[in-house]
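WARN no homologs supplied; continuing
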Amino acid sequence: MWKLEKISNYSLYAVCGVIVLVFALFFGVGYDNYDESGNVAPTLTNLLLGLMYVLGLVTFCLMVWSLVKSARSAAGSDEKEATGIAGSKIVIGTAVVTVLAFVAGFVFNMGEEAFTTSSGVTTSGTMVTLVDAFMVAIYCLAIVSVIAVVVASTGVMTKTASKKK
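OK structure emitted
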């Protein structure tokens, strides 16, 4: 029986390998194709977009599964983790930061105007605002993640938690 860590490592390597392969194919095969209006139209654009959709769907499913699992395990216990913070507070904090960042991105980008791309596709202002809101949420969560990794790698929270015991 494989350990979860070994499965996780092999999965990460496999996903990284597929991503590198698809990007190598995208930029290496037919990247210099042009459409009728003279714009670059790579041959394997649909392959790259398909990979992004699949990875986005898998990420979303894993996020929901992780939140449900974390909420179930933290629901009945106030036991502190190695960091000294109760697991339920981490789950709630993550959900709150995500929602607030999304709302902030949506509110601050209200009133975006529709625009037409060089290929003639018109995008509504609402969709531009929605994409901007997602981008703000992604940036906020990335910053919080970097801070969490730095704090976790320094061991500050672990030292604090061990002193309280």
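Residues 111 and 125 are 7 Å apart (CA to CA).
OK
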